[in-house]
Amino acid sequence: MNIVARMVNTTARVVNQTIVDVITIAQKSQIMKYFLTLFILTFFASMVQSQTHITGVITNMKNEPLPGANVMVKGSIDGASSDTLGRYSFSTRRKGEVILLTTYIGFEPCEIPVKLNGTDLIADFRLREQSASLADVVITAGSFEASDKKKGVTLKPLDILTTASAAGDIYGALSTLPGTSVVGEDGRLFVRGGDAYETNTYIDGMRVKKPYSSTTPDLPSRGRFSPQLFTGTTFSSGGYSAQYGEALSSALILNTTGLADGNQWGLGLMALGTTVSKTWAGDRASGSIGAEYYDLKLYNNLVKQRVTYDKDPLGAGCNFNFRQRTGRDGLLRVMGNASLSRVALWYPDYDNSGVQSLINLDNDNVYLNSLWTTPVGNGWDMKLGQAFSYDNNRLRPGERRVDETDLFYQGKLTFRKEFTPKVNLLAGADISVSRFVQEYSDTAVPLFRAEISDQMPALFAESEVMVLRKIAIRAGLRGEWSPMLGELVVNPRFSAAWLVGEDSQISLSSGIFNQKPQEQLLRFTKDLSFERAEHYILNYQIQKDNRIFRVEVYQKNYSNLVCYDGNDYTNATTYNNKGNGYARGLEIFWRDQQTIKTLDYWVSYSYIDTRRLYRDFPAKVRPTFAPEHNFSLVAKWWVAKLNTQFGGTLSLASGRPYNDPSSSGFMDKITSNYFDISLNASYLFPLFGKTSVLYLSVSNITGQRNIFGYRYYQTPQGVFMSDPVKPEADRFFFIGVFINFS
Predict the structure, then answer these.
(1) Shortest CA distance to 241 belongs to which of 458, 46, 44?
(2) Where are the beta strands (DSSP E) in 105-157?
(3) How many domains are there within the chain?
(4) First CA to last CA across the chain, in angstroms?
(5) Which of 734, 740, 679 is nearest to 222 (CA)?
(6) Contact 214/163 with Cβ under 8 angstroms?
């Protein structure tokens, strides 16, 4: 209970300091990779009861079903999408006279007035095709749309939670998509030859400064947020919108859920820990709170680990969501997440062969986000968002001490208007305020302190235009100013799509993207410039009958990458922006949910040719996080007789480069190929009148001895001694029971 009390006190203190001064230093901690309590929210959303159940069928004027059409209670967010037969079903707590609104890409919206009184209602729709619409063509180059409200869905939030290899982690599931690389010792998202810092995460349009848990060397981190918090996930592997900045390679765009439509309790019981949650809902507002606690001591005693822990990973967290309708069509969303974690382990001292050092890591993290959406007249819609994050690490490697505090605030105002069905405009501004402080000391070195602050404003505008009927064009411009760097950058973005067939299209995208150097590079000098990347992407996609096939080629050119002398990294004079590089490749994706009715599977393949000169690299080479070939097969099979869904993931990757100091070349050695088969099963059973879940999973079922690279000792003994970098265990097991209460 001391952990929980500490977490509550830390959260209260940080929030109070935020009100007084958004940029103020507070306190410290971590969240570990086994935060598997994310699973509890997966199954709760579908268990909610409400007062009126509405069903129906949506067809065209020829009585042909329209799959993926959206139907909703007008002026609210209650609604659903139709299935492959055009059928839909949803529940609402609304009462009285309302209007049901149905929309579908390429068809005119249709409205039906109905009266809701708590009894079941059947409402069928027949839609008439539009003469022209922007939505006839969807730009897909460099972007995987995963919104539940889009026709072109390729990956839904529930898919993330039921992907066997992901263990409930958003980033783990995205690593099965083309363009990504498996970097098992890190856990973050590496996209198209880009380092992990080149991919940024946005929740409701607002940047998340620290989306991953803190961890020690060679142990993978996890995402901090449950996929079930989000109605949609857009994974952009390049060429993303002008409203997003500060990401050289990729943007992960997450949109949170709307109002809940029922009250319930949830309880999760696992060998790793426990979770509890409460959700309540009214006609115009809803909210939820949750708490979790985990301790891996019991698990580590049962499953042998390669890591020697002095203090097994443990942690606690709490979260909340609040939704409030404002006016007739406005909605206010507020969310927050606070967590702390502790771990201590023994790690080899690579300056002294045969010696191990004790590493202690404590981390505290707080994230707050709010978004208000509302119409403001004359057809304009407004979004006003804010986000604040606080992260503190206390790292104690041996006799050394490293304290890092990272504070980040972003405010964003966006306006959007559809002038005609063929033309719309989005424009806005945002400002990012950041402060990073690092203090370092050991027995031989006096205290070193670095403080990095910046207030970066940005302006952006973007317009989408329909040309003829089968061509859509999106053009945008983003300008950013960094007072710290003393530099202004203006980045054009352009995308287009051409509907070449009834179900197929060609898309292309290009643009310039800039990102400030990482704080770790700015500690010793601020005399640096924005890093830069240029994207060029060409895509072909065909989607029909719950099947989708896409192939994409791309070229990405880097410039202004930061370089320094690794043997003298504290010397500010060695830092410059002379780095450069490129990444180019081919990606293929296929998903089939139709051929076998109870089987859903997807296949992805990526080929990448990349070289870069950056950081302390002495030459332009393939980086260690970019294997040449990546292949994934994900399958999910529902067995009705057993009331169980079985899942499996096969992951393959070619060997990754690593540097052997005894070799005459640099980064010229290759690890063995990566191979992993993971399995899971979800058994649904009734309990207290609700559907609850027994969840089982195991990773690397074959026990493959994957090696991610090698760590070398500094002192050669004839040859340089090394340790292979491996997973902390050959397999990872998980079992949990998730129970729902009304």
Answers:
(1) 458
(2) 107-116, 121-122, 125-127, 143-144
(3) 2
(4) 27
(5) 734
(6) no
Residue 602, token pair as written in the block: 């997807």
Q: Give yes or no for residue 16 having a pLDDT over 60.
A: no
In a domain, 519, yes or no: no
| Run of H or E including 299 | helix 297-302
Question: How many angstroms separate the CA atoms of 464 and 16, rounded?
Answer: 42
Residue 154 lies in a domain: no
The DSSP letter of residue 87 is E
Of 130, 148, 172, the one marking the end of a domain is 130
| Residues 51, 123 share a domain | yes
Q: Are residues 126 and 61 in the same domain?
A: yes
Q: Closest Cα partner for 615 from 583, 582, 578?
A: 578
Q: Are strands 576-592 and 599-613 parallel, antiparallel or unpaired?
A: antiparallel
Q: Tell me whether residue 323 is in a domain.
A: yes
Q: Domain boundary residue among 332, 362, 392? A: 362
Taking the C-alpha atoms of residue 556 and residue 538, their distance in angstroms, rounded to an integer, is 12
Alpha-carbon distance 509 to 493, whole Å?
A: 8
**Residue 520, C-beta contacts closer than 8 angstroms, at least 6 positions apart:** none
Which CATH number belongs to the domain containing residue 66 in this structure?
2.60.40.1120
Residues 299 and 314 reside in one and the same domain: yes
Asked if residue 165 lies in contact with residue 172, where contact means CB atoms within 8 angstroms, the answer is yes
Diameter of the chain measured on Cα atoms:
85
What is the helix (H) or strand (E) element at residue 6, kind and residue range? helix 2-20
Same domain (yes/no): 3, 86? no
Tokens coding 719: 């040859």
Contacts of 236 (CB under 8 A, 6+ apart): 142, 143, 144, 250, 251, 252, 253
Q: Which two tokens stand for residue 393?
A: 């690490």
pLDDT digit string, tens, across residues 120-169:
899 999 988 764 333 445 656 666 543 333 333 345 666 776 788 887 78
Rounded Cα distance, 210 and 169, in Å:
15
pTM: 0.81
Tens digits of residue pLDDT in 266-306: 888 887 889 999 999 888 899 999 999 999 998 898 888 88
402 domain-assigned: no
Q: Are residues 286 and 337 in the same domain?
A: yes
Residue 624 tokens, joined? 């260690």
Nearest 5°: the CA angle 179, 387, 495 is 40
Residue 128: what residue type? Answer: R
